[in-house]
Amino acid sequence: MPLRIVNKPLGRLLLEKKAISESQLNRALKVQKEEGGLLGQILLRLKYVTEEQIVVSLATQFGYPYLPLSNCEIESYVIELIPKNLACQYYVVPVDKIDKILTVVMVDPSNKLAIEDIEYVSKCKVQAFVSTATDIKKAIEHYYGSFEEKFERKKTAELSFAKANKTAITEQTPKDTFQDLQPKS
Questions:
Q1: What are the phi and psi torsion angles at 101 (to 5°)?
Q2: Counting C-beta atoms within 10 Å of the first and last residue's C-beta, which end of the chain has fewer, N or C?
Q3: Strand, coil or helix: 125
Q4: pTM above 0.90, yes or no
């Protein structure tokens, strides 16, 4: 559940945080107008910002707390609450469990289907934080094993379902979301 949504465009948030200059924003907006695409992806491609700066700004914009995973040590019983296939499908890692509340870190905490699936499988209420796709992928590989190994065994039906959902998401108007920062598989 979002904390507080900030109704400011991504570029404005990055300017206010002094992550980019006005000229860098104008250059990225010009590229976006000429080539299309998402502002966050363009800023990353131009190397004006880091993945973390984009994710922190999106977290602010959409009202989700940010949790870097670099220093987290996660207990094995917590990892076992989410199977590897769900962790890879939704780019999610469980980090803590207190009573019936499971704290997870996700690329896209606004994904209601992912939250519902995790709650069903774990039998816990989910508290979602956001982190970078890079940190989440590293954590998945550290706690679950090779990321690619999971996809080699993935059933065709699951891939079709994921592609259908991804198509529905990408047919929306271009707007930076957490989903846009998830690596394409």
A1: -115, 120
A2: N
A3: strand
A4: no
Q: In the block, which residue shows the tokens 């930076």? A: 176
What is the distance between the terminal CA atoms of the chain, rounded to a whole angstrom?
27
d(CA 43, CA 174): 15
Tokens of 4: 């507080």
Which CATH homologous superfamily contains domain 76-170?
Answer: Type II secretion system, protein E, N-terminal domain (3.30.300.160)
**pLDDT tens, position by position, 64-113:** 899 999 888 999 999 999 999 999 999 999 999 999 999 999 988 888 99
pLDDT digits (tens, 9 = 90+) for 125-134: 999 999 998 9
**Residue 91 has what DSSP assignment?**
T
- The structure tokens 């529905």 sit at 168
For the stretch 79-106, what's the b/e string if a residue is b when 16 or more beta carbons lie within 10 angstroms of its beta carbon? bebbebbbbbbbbbbbbebeeeebbbbb
Annotated domain spans of the chain: 10-63, 76-170
Angle at 132 between CA 130 and CA 133, to 5 degrees: 110
